[in-house]
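User: Could you walk me through two proteins back to back? I'd like the raw sequence and the structure tokens for each, with a short line separating them so I can tell where one ends and the next begins.

Assistant: Of course. Protein one, sequence then structure:
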Amino acid sequence: MPSRRTVWFLSLALVGAGLTLVAQPAASSASGQAPTFRTKTSLVLVPVVVRDREGHAVGHLRKEDFQLFDGGKQQAISAFSVEATAGQTASPTASQAAVPAAGAAPVVKSLPTPAPAQPRRFVGYLFDDVHATLNDLGWARGGVERNLETLAPADRVAIFTTSGRTALDFTDDRAKLRETLLKLKPNPIARPLTAECPDVSHFVATVVGGLESQSGESNQTLPSPVPGVGVFGRGPAGSGAQALEALTLETIDCLHLDVLMHDDARRIAQAAVRRAMSAGQYETKVAAMMLKQVVRRVGAMPGQRTVIVLSPGFLAVEGAEQWIIEAADLATRLRVVVSALDARGLYTGAPDIAARGLGTPWVLQVKHDLNRLGAQAEAGPLAELADGTGGRFVQNTNDAADGLKQIASPPEYLYLLGFSPKELEPDGRFHRLKVRLSRKQKLTVQARRGYYASKQLSDPAEAARRELEEAVFAPEDIHDPAVAVHTEFFKSGPAKAELAVLTHLDLERIRLQKAGGLNANDLTVVSCLFDRNGNFVAGKQEGVKLRLRDETLANRMAGGLTVKTSFETQPGTYAVRVAVRDEQGDLLSAESAVVEIP
């Protein structure tokens, strides 16, 4: 993809019997010259997967089978659809409507099966090399390598890492994929690769930090460990006290200090806690930011899209938690399913110091229990991502390939519930969601657990731009009889060709409004070119301003209007995607075509 490109806004001004073409260059498609659109009420989308006793997704439910609650208050479900993956057929009658109407029957949008030469399914593997150990990465890498053997001709795979140091864009070249997998290694950003003394995890640092925030002091007198007493039986303060005492005793052991140096060892342990807290917060924020970027990247692929996170987990610390929820919200809008595999495999919780022959039985027990609790807390964000996007989270398995097999494909059926929050304040606050079935059935419901209200009022122009962008990268075509797309090409040399994309607009099917005695509407046409791996090559946006007198409109009704967009390219196989939207939002179309230039 070129780092900079020129996008031309082509204004077609039809005034009276004349046709005026005005070409205006702009820096990008996000230019401020974009037309102002009217937009609908803000809609919150909630992906829902309903499974039977065997864990299979079911697709026969209707809107009235669901109840949706925002902050405990039931909401009216104003939009409802069922998406079935290729090869599945949902019970309700299929429809090609782009936006489900309030009170309508489910809209079933089956993902199309394009020509064999074009990619159909995109899987982005995100390795959390910031938090994972060498053993974690090796175990997860082995599972991915075995899953590469199951790739279909229409599948494309990309590899990303949370550190950003290793990456491979979407491809079907298995040799390149395996070569990239072999480059994976731990890349902690704020922590050393080797174990410190004492060894403090982010979770343990949080537990101890909670104790110090409650006491207001960091040098209080701590209770002595009592064998046989439950390690976490005395609430958060007791947990933090015993965690810090265990770290203190570990420090004495690993630094070979005299037992009389207990206070010195405690101060060393507290300093390690502060370092671990700072490093953990920073690394988690980096991972959450990269996750959001990967979702956006995968969401730009023209087909069925999945992100698989391979991570030992991390804590949803303040700041990162909102980014994780925003990543799930972005995945919902871009129709990206996010699943996750716990890269620790079958987790035992055994302390690392045990392998080094350090720690008394009491210290080992405390750290073992802390590790188990930490694993549960660190799995939380991965489970939230999966639940919030219709994916799955697999943990505590010793077979990485089997775990990936369970989550590599999206669910057979995915419900999309939409509602417009009443009196929603743009305060940035978190709103907790709950979805349940309206009648008792032996089914389980998986849905996103909340969303953040925007801190800014909705901008109609931005909302329209986003809707058009999502139509360009939607996994299915959005058919509208007012729009038809054709392509033609001309070769000017062995390695040079011009591809023309012809977008025909049927004026009889486009709603026009009277404005100053003219029949008016403004349309935006976006044409994009993708290579055989589904990667973006080029794109152009064109504005169509219709200003027609009644007699001119009558003369042009039969022939309509054709917008021509040209691309200079090379021989090869390409996918063309054209999206069209009018100013009122009444027209939204997205059509695909495959072109092979010999």
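----
Protein two, same layout:
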Amino acid sequence: MNQIYSTVKEKLAALRNEMKKEGIDIYVIPTDDYHGSEYVSSYFKAREYMSGFTGSAGTLAVSKDSAILWADGRYFIQAEKELYGSEIKLYKMGEPKVPTPDEYIKSKISEGLLIGFDGRVITAKQGAMWESTAFENGISIYGDIDLIDRVWHARPQLPDGKTFLIPDKLSGESTASKLERLRKKIKAAGASCHLTSTLDEIAWLYNMRGSDVLHTPVFLSYTIIFENHCILYIDENKLDEPCRKHLKKNNINILPYEQIYTDLKNLDKNHNVLIDTSRINYSIKTMIPDDQKTINSPNPIQLMKALKNDVEQKNIRNAYLKDGIACTKFMFWLKTNVGKIPMDEISVADYLESLRREQPGFIDLSFSTICAYKEHAAMMHYSASFESKSQILPEHMLLVDSGAHYDTGTTDITRTFVLGNISSELKTHFTTVLRSMISLAKAKFLEGATGGNLDVLAREPIWQLDIDYKCGTGHGVGYILSVHEGPAAFRWQTGKDQSANIPLQSGMTLTDEPGIYIEGSHGIRLENQLFVKKAEKTVFGQFMDFETVTLCPIDIDGIIPEIMAPEEKAFLNSYHKNVYKKLSPFLSEEENEWLKIYTREI
């Protein structure tokens, strides 16, 4: 009978035993699945299993005498708590003198150590970099071994969720049209076919959705797009009958999920294959013969998907109307019942979910709700458990970051609620976060500007307090897809994150979510979603601006109006006027009377 390891130390000891058998000095365990997904199904949560760290991003490296986990600024506090008592040392990414995982691993390869990893969960770009370093030092890497499977004896099965079709009236464009546009881009790149494994891109291209990843409606698959046909590598049992007919209609052949690895070895040498080595895994790349011509270029589907068409934009506005009804009803319930009935971080999140489920077209949450009271909100991605949950009382503040998938779009919204008297410092921080959010939302800029150009607009009011937040200001949002979507983002460190260098284009939708996080005290984040829109065109060029689509009051109990500029007050007052106009027809008389108070002019 296989032994079940219960503690991190036991798991690391078992892993080291397997490493010793293979002569591996350092074994690398990332967060990814075979498709580079941000959120992964239970089967792929190897890093979480081995370390106990539950954040959505991070890399673990284990050697015979040490273990290191890298986490980004969203998770510093959480990681310290979850790693406490284990031997794993936390490396805080982005902090001075802290090497990146790549820098660390390359240095160890240079010392002559053998690096091992499962090439299916490492990008081809990353694996090639380590391979090159190893070659320069006259050694090799061990890139095709899954040691976790040897020590994780109760490992969950691969997911087997069913697919469903998104009709053209909701997608705004048929699969045939998308394929026609994509094939032109493939040809323009000098290729004759395109291989992609990114799940949200495949789902978008084929107007299908699935349920293989919690809160992300995608299905495990790979695909190759040829000039006259496509191949979809997928477990055929996932496909319902409408999806089968849809695929056949569009000349998309179905083959078993794992078969791609053997098929790539026998690909017709006449094909020039377009790949993006930052978005396919190392094992896939190594299966393509060396004499097969490949063209490494950014995946064209990513930008195509990010530019929402008119139907998608219309539907997203409808999704935010539904979401606004649910979130505003929640705010009313919270503000009028806190201190009167029992509440905790889990029960409150559950109540918000129940309100969303009442909305027509609700599919699922778009991520696990972050419901963080008092000092818990200082952990940007705090996750309440039955052990950690706080009782919510009529004092201090509650941060709720949540979202949903509806049949008309995906939402992501954060509000921080004032639940009692708060200090002048907390009000100053709340007002400053609001000013930061407004500063970005009302920006006007020339076409070609990037998220890196504009990120400082949101940070400047917070920087004036000598405070910063260790994450980006905003990210793209998918359409009934991943709540985090590339290629563009609001980030100021343009040299470290290429998403900050992507020009903002009309049709993109991004979040605007600055924050202040003070460990042991409080966290404040406010988040709205923005459409990038074309504004006036003059002799100086095409100007651009944003449309705010989120509909939910900002808690004016946290605001100090005297420290807001007149144009900031005008923006907030106009926003609240629109919130009341759009939502009031769907609320009760009591809720409407309350909403009038919380959308009043300041």
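The mean pLDDT is 96.

Let me know if you want the two compared in more detail.
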